[in-house]
Amino acid sequence: MRLPDDADIPAQINIVPMIDVIFAILTFFVMSTLFLTRSEGLPVNLPKAETAKKSSRPVQVNVTVNQAGEVFLNKQGISIEQLEAKIKQKVQPKQEVMVVLNADAGVDHGKVVAVMDKVRRVKGAKLAIATRKP
């Protein structure tokens, strides 16, 4: 008795589905690493400064002034009048707080000075202005 012709063909391993799975896993890792970047302020067009330095402080508060002149404290909208009180709430006794001002290059100078004035009134808060290197 003879077996059908299909029995004469040797067994083969099809690797195309395995390649698809590996590319899917690779895509997952590439996409997940894109979300690992740390953004500490709202996206604004920062002015350039030759002497810009990157500093790291234990406690950091971000104040952002966008191009429309709106003020944000740690990505939450706030009025300039409330800014001083909200920053005082974040200051712990005997702990330095770094307030980083992210102001868009197109913002009115008076608005930035008003924000800086409110930050300077807070005891124990240091002020830094975010810039980018040219």
Structural class by SSE content: alpha/beta
CATH class of the largest domain: Alpha Beta
- How many structural domains? 2
Share of residues in strands: 15-25%
Mean pLDDT: 82
Count of helical segments? 3
Low-confidence stretches: none
The beta-strand count equals: 5
Q: Largest beta sheet: what is the strand line-up?
A: 3-2-1-4-5
How would you sum up the global shape? elongated
In words, what does this structure look like?
- With 134 residues, the protein is α/β, with parallel strands linked by helices.
- The chain has 2 domains: 5-34; 59-129, Nucleotidyltransferase, domain 5, CATH 3.30.420.
- It contains 3 helices and 5 strands, in the order H-E-E-E-H-E-H-E.
- It has helices spanning 16-34, 80-90, 109-120, and strands at residues 59-65, 71-73, 76-78, 97-103, 125-129.
- The chain has a 5-stranded mixed beta sheet, covered by helices on one side.
- The N and C termini lie far apart (84 Å).
- The model has no long low-confidence stretch (mean pLDDT 82).
In short:
The chain is an alpha/beta fold. The protein has helices at residues 16-34, 80-90, 109-120; strands at residues 59-65, 71-73, 76-78, 97-103, 125-129.
Topology at a glance:
Blueprint: H1 16-34, E1 59-65, E2 71-73, E3 76-78, H2 80-90, E4 97-103, H3 109-120, E5 125-129
Parallel strand pairs: 1-4, 4-5
Antiparallel strand pairs: 1-2, 2-3
Helix pairs in contact: 2-3
